[in-house]
Amino acid sequence: MQDSVCKVSAKARTVISSNICNDEAMAANITKRNIINQSSASPISFVSGAEKSMHNPKNASGPSKQGQTQFKPRSKCLVHGNGNHTTEQCKVLKRIATANTATTATTAIKVTPPTITKKNCYKCSANVPWSPDHATTCSRDKVKRFNSPTKAFRSARFSGHHNRSKHSPAAVNLNDQEHSHGSMDIDISSLPTNYDCKKKTSKQNEVKTNHSLYVPITIENIDTFALVDSGASFSSIDITFANKNNININNNVSGSIIFATNDNKSKRLGTTSKALSLIYGDNDDALIHTSHIFEVLPLSFDTDAVIGLDLMPKLNILITNLAVKHPNKKPAVKEEIDDTPEPNNAPYGTNDQQINFMAAVKSDLDQNAQIPKNSFCTVPESIIHLDTEKNKTAYRSPYRIPLKLMPVMRDCVDTWLKDEVIEHAPPSSEWNSPLTLAPKKDLQGNLTGYRPCLDPRLLNSILISNDKQPIPKIDEIFDQLQGSTIFTTLDLRQAFHRFQIYKPDRVKTTFTFQGQQYMFKGCPFGLKHIASRYQRVINSILADVPYALAFVDDIIIFSKSYEEHIIHVQNVIKKLTNVNLILNVDKCHFAQTSVYLLGFCVDAKGSRLDPRKVTNALSWEKPSTGKDIQRFLGSIG
């Protein structure tokens, strides 16, 4: 290196000498104003009259004893910040220092600056002589130059991957640098960063008197103060505090931290590798001992730790007297959410589970649908005998059918003939029961149509009923449903018509329509003992399946799990198919969490009254007089 310096050409020496001479003239001019102060053992430094006043408060104002005028405002250097020299002066002295090094070997030019005493940095308490190099590491100067944030990291929260925060020195954006008029001789990006420079240390028994919420706390047996920040969603400690006290940091983290101001984001530095022990409280008898994992951040100034919302409950730090509404304003009333499932329209599980359920029972439903409509139940007990009193017959003339309803009756009779539910009666029959039309209504009580049926009341009066099969009690059925969570209800197509009438007794069901007499092969609705006989037959079919119950023609299957319910439904459908009982799939409800049954709504919570059955009662006016109350009590018994 020395050889290469010695080989500098004469022209180069001339240029260097010329520049140095010019710089020396400027440097001499600066020296006359007491600006340049350099020590032979330290780098070039500047101390102005203004800075002297900062060190000596007694000379901070007014002219000096030598008659000097009041000091001028501080200059600004893009490298060293606000101080005692400008950027151009810094460049001059930089070139002088470089030239001194380059000409040492050639002894061409040598500049000997004046010797003065060293001055310590007035910005920190480290007792370090001030110099440009120290200015790059001085934390107080660095904070001002890099426009550091306030003490509290307000409303900090985690986010996804973002760029480094503007608070980090590695990502500083100097506005002054953007507007500089020339290139700098010193690379600012290469300046060292040192969080420890002039960092104030916590003092025992120190009392915070500002408006920030600082509380004493012991972290890993180290007494310090922490800022209580209710706007921070997490707690953090200063990276300098962690390094100084040998607290291990886990740098294997990702994501970023968002602060309160817009576009103020910082890449995460890390967390403490373990939960730090904490002691909090000012009463020895009521100290709180806990531990917590902190986020590591370069906190500003003398803040060693920040207590966020995640740590406040552990330390029993509470926020009280929070308002919940504006004065004289009522809070908005939220609509009540009715989470009660709608019966027959509350599928169990997900859509995929419903699809899988129907796929599992599809083959059984297809086999049931193939049962001939002109067939009858194969259970021997399903054959109906119509025993009547001796020497008595039942004959009643046909009712007149309104002309506008005649097509309804005609269609019904044709369907019965097609399905072989009825057949032509023998001539000169002594028996006859009239046909009638029963109105059909929807759940709101509105008329939806008419159902043709036989009026066998005269026949029932002479029938000898010998079947005393009891109908199950509704309460007993509901008791057996307890604990079940999934239900299926099955509806049988023309259930009573599937029971065959004993052939010699069919003539007793004769009816007349449009001059023709017909008699039933399958049992019609309305016969006196058909309900008991039907209940007996269904009970025998479902005798070995405790997960299915029948109330006459209403069948319910109940299970405690989705998987077993599939098996239960398959078994019941197969049993009905084996005895030629046809399902009306359109009225069946499969795998429901709530169903209608016998005028009630049934679900996993139990049973409740079907609201459709009390529509009229709900529309009653509220009793307002004593007479109204008497009427109400009389109507409900």
From TrEMBL:
PROSITE patterns: ASP_PROTEASE, RT_POL
Composition bias type Polar residues, residue spans: 56-72
Alphabetical GO biological process terms: proteolysis
Alphabetical keyword list: Aspartyl protease, Endonuclease, Hydrolase, Nuclease, Nucleotidyltransferase, Protease, Transferase
Region called Disordered, residue ranges: 50-72
Domain Reverse transcriptase: 419-602
Molecular function terms, GO-annotated: aspartic-type endopeptidase activity; endonuclease activity; nucleotidyltransferase activity
Keyword Membrane: no
Presence of keyword Hydrolase: yes
Protein name per UniProt: Reverse transcriptase domain-containing protein
Organism: Rhizopus oryzae
